[in-house]
Amino acid sequence: MASYVEIQPSIIFILGTGSEVFSWPMHGSPSKLTVKCIMDYAAKPEHYFSGARKNFVDSLPVNPNARLLEVGCGNGDTGAYALATQKCGWCAGVELWPDAAREASKRISEVLVGDVEQIALPWSPESFDVLVMSEVPEHLRDPWATLRRLHRFLKPGALVVSGSPNVAHHSVLRMLIRGRWNYQATGLMDWTHLRWFTPATYREMFQICGYKVIEVKPAARLRWKSQWFNLLTFRKLEHLLHTQIVLRAIRASLDVHGDLGFGNSRL
Question: Beta strands 128-134 and 67-71: pairing type?
């Protein structure tokens, strides 16, 4: 039976006018930004937290002995798919939204409820063979610090698969030309996004945080018009053509004396 870990909270939030109670496992008090994020997630439709990222899992080798960590596990569909396809034999998840976490606890091995940037992570160093982060870094206040924090829990050479929206997509550029920056309920301009990346800066973020990047690519195959445009421009403008970035990397050594991510790549 799956383990559902909800550490004793220091503060309890009551969301809206209903009876939903969110217990916040953390050290110290949450920021106003954290509270706002919680309220925003309360407004998300249920399907936002569901759906297996099969393309992420399918890229992993079969290894029934592997231990997989998914940050932002939602309702556990991706982890359940990884278990069913023997890409891992044990799967832990971290999920901010309690309702989704409860569902995930029925599907995967262990679920930790709370903000990955603030809660205590209970695992021993070098516990995991795989890290999955699907549409997570853009929601974090400091994804650089989080990637460095997670680094110690991964075995040397552990596989990492991550995905985020591509702010360099031509639709965003057209919007900027019109002098607009329009948030939406979901998608590329989701109002809960706190950070924005291009394929190049996504790669750089992982590299300076102790990961060796294997590839950065579009999440989906380009449509035929985009393929022709890509060929005619010698792939120089490919970053304008896809809405989602997918990155594959391995856990390398962490250079504690190197760039901590507070330079231009973080702006």
Answer: parallel
* Number of structural domains found in the chain: 1
Q: What is the tens place of the pLDDT at every residue in 147-202?
A: 999 999 999 999 999 999 999 999 999 999 999 999 998 889 999 999 999 999 99
43 within some domain: no
Residue 7 falls inside a structural domain: no
Does 37 fall in a domain?
no
CATH code of 78's domain: 3.40.50.150
pTM: 0.80
Highest mean pLDDT among 8-17, 33-42, 193-202: 193-202
List all residues 6 or more positions away from 254 whose beta carbon is below 8 Å from its beta carbon: 148, 151, 152, 209, 210
Task: Please count the other Cβ atoms lying within 10 Å of the Cβ belonging to residue 108.
Answer: 25
Which domain, by its residues, includes 218? 50-266
Q: Look at residue 178 in the predicted model and tell me its pLDDT.
A: 97
Q: Is residue 24 part of a domain?
A: no
Element (H, E) at 24: strand 21-24
Hey, what amino acid is at 251? R
State the DSSP string of 126-194: T-EEEEEEES-GGG-S-HHHHHHHHHTTEEEEEEEEEEEEBTTSHHHHHHHHTT----BSSSTTBTT--
Structure tokens at 51: 């759906």
